[in-house]
Amino acid sequence: MLNVSDLELRVGARVLMSDVSFRVSDGDKIGLVGRNGAGKTTLTKTLAGDLQPAGGSIERIGEIGYLPQDPRSGNPEELARTRILDARGLGSLVVGMREATEQMASADPEVSEKAMKRYTSLNDRFLALGGYAAEAEAAAIASNLALPDRILDQPLKTLSGGQRRRIELARILYSGARTMLLDEPTNHLDADSVGWLREFLKGYQGGLIVISHDVELVGDTVNRVFYLDANRQVIDIYNMNWKNYQKQRESDEQRRKRERANAEKQASSLQMQAAKMGAKASKAVAAQQMAKRAEKLLSGLEDVRASDRVAKLRFPEPAACGKTPLMGRDLSKSYGSLEIFTAVDLNIDRGSKVVILGLNGAGKTTLLRILSGVDKSDTGEIISGHGLKVGYYAQEHETLDVNRSVLENMVSASPHLTETEARKVLGSFLFSGDDAHKKAGVLSGGEKTRLALAMLVVSSANVLLLDEPTNNLDPHSRDEILGALASYSGAVVLVSHDEGAVEALNPERVLILPDGVEDHWNKDYADLISLS
After folding, report:
1. How far is residue 294 from each of residues 119, 147, 265, 302, 304, measured CA to CA in Å?
2. What is the pLDDT of residue 304?
3. Residues of the chain with pLDDT under 50
4. Pairing between strand 29-33 and 207-211?
5. Residue 345 is part of a domain; what is its CATH number?
6. Number of folded domains in the chain?
7. Region Disordered: start and end of each range (predicted)?
8. Which of 8, 174, 206, 532 has a 20 to 30 Å separation from 234 between CA atoms?
9. How far apart are CA 352 and CA 436, in angstroms?
């Protein structure tokens, strides 16, 4: 449960919201909405205790389960299964019981007896916390999030960003937290997992705040909506479901426009009369009173919501290059004993459009990282053709230096840019004024996406490697991405769960992982996108 009073949030000198008060009780399922950069992620981080507010107070009652957009929690050496089970204190006990079992087989009687006592103690604690039934519950949640045993038995450091995020989501759902704060929980989930998550959240008894661009999930689960208005710097609270909220918000906007139009008309009339009367000394006092009435009329109005700005995106004119700027030969990758893919061959011709499909964990992100030069293949080689310039968009935003400012990241992507030129491009991506000096590490997921895309725009890349480029974007910004994809004349290799993104790309070829099968694109492959 959360009690929020007179909350004020700032980023630098910019006020995101002020005088905000609300309560989240058991059974409240709140959809937190607003354009990218409005402060949704900053608010959830503050509610979770990861950031401190500029003013006001937050009272937290019971455990909080927080899923950030880019989770980096947990010991990298820890097994994924242990990470989930430790949400209820079971993971370390299971590891200890396994170690004690091995030691009980020791030929040394003293070691064996000590291990037996340790096992008994650990097993008693394990059973007290729910034991095998609780362990089975964790396994069921993991399974529904497409996390099979082969992933659960791996150390966290070997997992892809999408797998790590699903581990954290499973951990939170399993924890029994009284309040959950979920920031884009459907990212990296296949269609079946998204459907299962919707049903889980519908039956959840605690308090929930969810940020999601998945309209079906929000429509099916929320019973309250908090609209974060970036222009008015307030949260409008709607105690109703999603469908009714959409109707009510439109009605509110129309009411504000009518009230403002009427008040402006009256104020204008009063000001004109005041101007005429003010010319006569005998009526100066009456003129002042009229002017004050006009001012009061306008000051008492609610602001009309200005149209939300949208990032204007066009990918760069590609630099000149040879017929086949990028090639991969006999590529393979394994993590320990886990084989991801083997013997993958790929030619990226000038201007070609390729989509990579495969189930979660099939190696799609890994292959893009190898093609970009971030990771090395275990076998084979990457061959750079004449004039190759790669632009890599990483789904976890690893291309951003979180310790550098927005402006410094831009200049590093294209050193020939002047500060004025960099600021002009940043402005088209909604980074204006002091925003340019914010550290990349404090940006929301949507803002990081916009910065990473802005860096691509100035790169003059002729091969774009795009890993889930529409994640974390509001619908309008997503439309800009799709339009840019459709008009880009360079080569693109795309990984995406977004059917609209693949349709906009209009690919010529498809590569299926982990088998490395390449084929001409046809509409039959479209059914695999949401499963990939």
Report:
1. 80, 64, 10, 15, 18
2. 47
3. 304-306
4. parallel
5. 3.40.50.300
6. 1
7. 247-269
8. 206
9. 34
